[in-house]
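During data preparation, a discrete fold description was generated, and the record follows.
___
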Amino acid sequence: MTNATIAPQEKRFIKLTEVIKMTGLSRATIYNYVNVAQFPQYTKVGRATFWEYNEVQNWLDEKLAQRTPKQ
């Protein structure tokens, strides 16, 4: 048996412009989704707003998994 250790994933914070590029959603839609808990929550650092990259990527993966295959 081997004792494999899993390295924790590095946190990578991204700004709204990158979230928009990743998702194709508008700024207003992203904030609307956040307000109704349908999108990952952002983090404020001073006046800057950031999202955690893996949370946004996981949200996209969930949306892809929910797709209905064409018949």
